[in-house]
């Protein structure tokens, strides 16, 4: 029997005299990796697939064209895609989800009401569906037709591409870049519905596709951007036009307001423009390497996130115009961005691999942004 020395810390030491022989092992003699090592390698590959993101939602079977984070639940996200479906899901909780069905064509836009009670989804089927935050269907919003004669002659054309809510009321604003009401020629419209009253208001006047629209933070006015190279300001109470901002404005993809008197626009000219609303002039112009397809301010901070056609997400300082961070992980065009209510997460949705809404599938990814509050 060998004599072993046991140290105070419990370690066992073998004396040199107890060694019988020494054998040198080649790499071929080493045992195969254990199952535990295999699991580690798989996790490493999974992390590489995530890129800079920390979580990926893959419930859609085609491109993810719209998403929104709940204003009251930091983990709740709503998405819509080319599979004609919407989903409610929670960050990091793959076992929880609710499908938002009912659309007959691509779900192109989705948004929570300011109090988090409702979700509105707009689609190319020319309707807006409203759900509660648990995924229960509430109502369908459509453009009212004045009379049966008009309905048969010239129904609304196109489909809804963007949807937004009033900042304090249950009022929905929606429009499209290919939408006119009742067959009007060279007249492009947006629509506004009151959930509580059922009232519908038409915003008519643009002479080109209305590519974006939203309420100002105080809810008193509406701003819409169009390919007719104008921004139009409307009364949210009456729907009447107030004034028009024209000039060398590019074709808009997105328009977003901030709590301080600034707005951000981006488009196919590969520029992000921060506007001083008090002076109606650019505050800074940021040059990117790809088209700007979506924008969002990071809460009330000075930072704005720009989603790009090349799959990158770029964070800019809205005051200085500096590029402070680029997130990567998507391989296709970024279609939508949203920030969680606690400003810990930036959620993004991408197109399908081929750009065809019916082919392959896109993803929604989650990035940590706590450092940009």
UniProtKB/TrEMBL annotation:
Stored InterPro entries: WD40/YVTN_repeat-like_dom_sf (IPR015943), WD40_PAC1 (IPR020472), WD40_repeat_dom_sf (IPR036322), WD40_rpt (IPR001680), WD_repeat_multifunction (IPR051179)
Keyword set, alphabetical order: Repeat, WD repeat
WD repeat windows: 57-91, 100-132, 203-244, 285-326
Keyword check for ATP-binding: no
CDD domains reported in the protein's UniProt record: WD40
PANTHER family the UniProt entry points to: ANGIO-ASSOCIATED MIGRATORY CELL PROTEIN, MITOCHONDRIAL DIVISION PROTEIN 1-RELATED
Name of the protein in its database record: Angio-associated migratory cell protein
UniProt organism field: Linum tenue
